[in-house]
Each structure stands twice: as C-alpha cells, then as structure tokens.
Amino acid sequence: xxxxxxxxxxxxxxxxxxxxxxxxxxxxxxxxxxxxxxxxxxxxxxxxxxxxxxxxxxxxxxxxxxxxxxxxxxxxxxxxxxxxxxxxxxxxxxxxxxxxxxxxxxxxxxxxxxxxxxxxxxxxxxxxxxxxxxxxxxxxxxxxxxxxxxxxxxxxxxxxxxxxxxxxxxxxxxxxxxxxxxxxxxxxxxxxxxxxxxxxxxxxxxxxxxxxxxxxxxxxxxxxxxxxxxxxxxxxxxxxxxxxxxxxxxxxxxxxxxxxxxxxxxxxxxxxxxxxxxxxxxxxxxxxxxxxxxxxxxxxxxxxxxxxxxxxxxxxxxxxxxxxxxxxx
Length: 329
Hints:
It contains 12 helices and 2 strands. It is mostly helical. It has one domain (about 1-315). A two-stranded antiparallel ribbon has the order 1-2. Strand 1 (about 1-5) and strand 2 form a beta hairpin. It starts with a strand and ends in an 8-residue tail after the last helix. Residues about 320-329 have low confidence and may be disordered.
C-alpha cells in the first residue's frame, strides 16, 4: 500500500509496531515498579499488594505479546529477504539462512534468549535478586532492537553515535510508555481506596513519575534530533520525502503528548498536595484521563516507527534523486 508517497508493507509494519510497543511496555513497567511504585509503597497501603500483583501480570502479558509478535516478525522478514512467497519461505533452509547469515536473524535469536531468561526471572519474582535480574534483562531486550533497524547498518563512527542514540531513544520511550500504562493502572487501583494512605501513595507515585518524566522527555528529544539528523539530513528531505513526512507526523504526535504530560506535571499533580484547591479524586481522574490519551498517542507513534523501519531513510532518497553534477571544464 502507498501512503505519503511511500510503499508500506502493512502486515510487517503492523507486527513491528505491536512488537515494539509490547517490548517497550515490558521494560517500562519493570522500571516503573522499581523506581516509582516500590519506592512509593508503604506497608499500610491497602492497594499495595494489588498493584504489585497486577503490575506483574501486566509485565507477563506484555512479554508474551512481545515474544509472539517477535516470531511473526521473523517469519515475515524471512519471506521478504528470501524473495519468496510467505508459504514458500516457510522452510528450515530459509530460516537457518536468516538466523546464521543476517544481522537481523542473529539479533532476534539473542533477543529470544533474553526473553526466555526474563520469563524465568518473572516466574521467581518473589525474590528481590530475580527482580533485579528481570529489570536488567528487560533493558537488554529493548536496547537490542536498535541493531535490527537503520542504526544497526550505519557504519563507522557515525554508526556508533547512531546506535548509542537509538538505544537511549528506545529505552527512554520504554520508560515513558511503560510508566504511563503502570500509572494508569495504579490510579485505577487508588481510585476506590478512599483512605489517606491510598491517596498519599497515589500522590507520591504520580509525583515521582512526573519528575522522572522530565529526564525521559529530555533524552527522547536529544536522541530524536540525532536520529533525524542522521537519517533525514536536511529540511528539504524532511519535507519532500515520504520518510520525512512520517517523521514530521511522529514529531507532531510527540508534541501533543508533551502538552498532556505538561498538564499532568505542572497543573494537576501539584493540586494533589493543595488541600482545598480541588478534590484530590478529581485531580487523580484528570491525571488518569490525560495518561490514557498519552498512551493512545504513543501507540500511534509506535505504528509510525514500525513503518519507518521498513523504508529507506530520507537522506538516501534525496541523494539518489539528486541530478548528477557535470564536471567543470
């Protein structure tokens, strides 16, 4: 299918988007639990055990979706790389060739091993050491995606910069989307808890995530600028190519997300600690609503990221379309 002047492989784009979102949520949920929820939990908080159990189930669900879509992604890429139809490409020879002779196959194999280890860690989540291992493995799982895209094929010193920026970009995005999903879950649990302890927990967790979100947004912006500079190269390419226009759409959606995040951080969160300004439950409701909107926008961004990874970067398209210069006489 064609969109914005670019050829889009619908099934591949869709499965990549779901895979990226599920993997990011797996990592982000575990980071949120370690840095926000566990720090905000108090022994007297009635919803503490519920949030812990629900967060773990959510991490499991995200990991299962990530593993399943990762396998489908592999099958679609195997068909694409072999040049055969999907049915014809479903052979052991094609699979072994992709796994052993392509960077994509080797990285996906490594990530599959990480996913299995992560599943084992989640199975023994009651042990603090296993929770620490799970967090570390989940970071590796999301970071390795950088080697499956354009950053993994960039060579030289520019390639090192590109991989570093893309890895940090993925990690920051994971913290944001996983944190938003976890926060929305937390607020849904805190809603029925009308005790002062429940409200205190919700307020502290929201404040912690909002503070962490400032650093996350800074990393997303900085690494996004680097990636755009490497892959697009010029304002002209950003405006005239399908790849560049998708990047512009991604930037626009991100800007809208920032507006809702800023409203939560600078308007609604402070009202949780200001008695008499408005009922705390109303402020929590507004934060939860804005968080859900941010999640929806983030999923749209993941869909765009899924498409961008299947297209040639704009900088290559502009260079290939440029007229050949005649030698001076």
